[in-house]
Structures are given as C-alpha cells and as structure tokens.
Amino acid sequence: MLLVLVSVFIHAACSNIEEQATKPIGESHLSADDVYVGFVIDTLKEERWYSDKEIFEEEVKQLGARVKTLAANGNDDVQIKQAELLLEEGVDVLVVVPHNAEISAKIVEMAHFAGVKVISYDRLIRNANVDLYISFDNEQVGKLQVEEILNHVSKGNFAYVGGAESDNNAHLFRQGAMSILQPYIDRGDIRIVLDEFTEGWNPSIAQENMEKVLSNLNDIDAVIAANDGTAGGVITALTKAGLQGVPVSGQDAELSAVKRIVDGTQTMTVYKSIQSLAKHAAKIAVQIAKNEEIETNQTINNGKIDVPSILLEPIPVTNNNIKETIIKDGYLTEADIYN
C-alpha cells in the first residue's frame, strides 16, 4: 500500500510538472510580489546551514517575494522529491544546495522541463545546464588552510581529512590545498600519511579515519581538515592520543571551532560570509524569477557547460584576527565566543 501511495504521489507530481512545462524558461515577467522562490537544501544538521536558511528566507521576504525551504538531511531521493514538490507548487526559481553534485543534475532537468531556472548555491551541480552558480572561491579556501598551517609547521607528517566525495566543493578544497603542498611533498619536506574524503562530512567518520592512522603512527605534525566539523572529529582523536595542540585547519567559522581556536586546539578556520552569500543569492533568485539580467564575474565548468558564476572571497581566521573578521561582520559576538 505504501509503495502504491508513493507511486501515485510521484506520478501526480510529475503530471503537474508536465502541465507547467508550457512556457519557455525566462519568458515570464513578474513583480516581486508574484515571485515564489524554492530553496532545496542538503541538510540542516550542520550549524552553518541554519544561518544560510534564515538569512536567505529573510532577504527574499524583504524583497517582497515568497519562499519555502526544504531540507533533505543528506538523502538524494528525498532531495529530488522535495524539488518535485516545489515545482508542483509552482515556484518561479529553484535554488539548490545539492547533496550529490552528480545526482542533482536530475533536479535541473526537471526544473527546466517545468520552465524554471536553477541556481546552484554554494555547491556546484555537475553535468547539468545550471543557470547560475553562486559560491566562494573554493580552491582558495584550500590554499588558505594550508598557508596558515605552514606558518606553524612546514615539515613532517601531514594528514589531509577531506569532505564528502559526493560534494564538488570537497574536490576543489583539496585541489587548492594540494597546489600549495605539492612542492613540499616533492622535495621530501612533507609526507602525507592520510588523504581521505569523509563520508557525509561526518565528524565521527573523520575521527575514526584519524584514529586508524594514529593507531599505527603516533607522530602527526599537522592536519588539513576540510571544515570545522571534520576538524572537531580530528581534534578529538588527537586529544585521545595525547597530541592536542597539533596544528589543525578548518572552515565555516562555526562557534565551536572559533572557541577551539581561542583554546588553542584548532589553528584556523575559513570564514565565508554567509550574510553576503545568502543575501546575494536571494536577490539574484528574485531577479531571475523576474527575468532580469544578472552580472556574473566568471564561469565555472561543471563537466557539461561553463556555468555563469559569482564567486565571493573567503577570509582566513586565526586567534589574531577574530575581532576584525567574524565579530566585526556581526557573524558572532564577543559574548558568544569568550563566555
């Protein structure tokens, strides 16, 4: 019975999408009051994504449009069904944080069939005719992580703890990191003793991978962790092994990570202004729904096309510039961090 009901729901959703597919993409001319924005987000399990959701929704509403956000909690099938639902409801533009960069191409296909444009938010959907991509310079993120770690140690055993292999950004972070590390590796100054992706960006898996290495080699000089979640898992493993204080990078400027930086167990994080990203994306979503022209600053190839892209600059954060960066920007307060 359940399978029958699911089948009927999907069939109904697809039928409604087919009914909508009568207008070519971009032909409507709407006022802001008429615009309905759909935001399909991978997960709300990580601290930063709550911020994206809240800021994005608030900005869309400030612009006079309607918005609905659906989170898939890391499930590809759920994310595709959520996109179907929003298309069935008649959204004018779809903003997507993909769980899987390849599988999410199906969402673009469905949206275009319904005459709806797609913005790839923060993570690039691969091998699809994505209309616009907005994110940060993600190779630069990896470079910033390594450069700060090298300020503390430039020889020895290094570990690279990556993000989810299904996330295109994880590959870009690694590319940026390795572009800086490679000369040190080539001349024998640095030995990479761990180089793995972390399934689902799960801190527990990052911890397990680190513990496996430490069980055979209790001599780690630095860890490049792709984000603050994986950094937290790594630091737990290092602390258990009596290696707290080993330089560890991160990303996202999560409150827990910034507190670790103050405590000296994490070396740095990379701040990507969620205010800037979410507000910019919201404005662009409404503009695209109204069929207005969008200025982009470059293109990024996603395996199929060169996607018009807007890339914002990431900022390295250490214990020396917390006040000048994330506090000044209003992302966190002194009370949040130091109390």
Automatic annotation (TrEMBL):
GO cellular component annotations of the record: outer membrane-bounded periplasmic space
UniProt keyword annotations, A-Z: Signal
Keyword Cell division: no
Main location: other
Family matches, as PANTHER family: D-XYLOSE-BINDING PERIPLASMIC PROTEIN
Pfam family, one: Peripla_BP_4
Compartments it resides in: Cell envelope
Residue ranges annotated for the Periplasmic binding protein domain, each copy included: 37-293
Single GO molecular function: carbohydrate binding
Record's protein name: Periplasmic binding protein domain-containing protein
Organism field: Anaerobacillus alkalidiazotrophicus
Entry annotated with the keyword Signal: yes
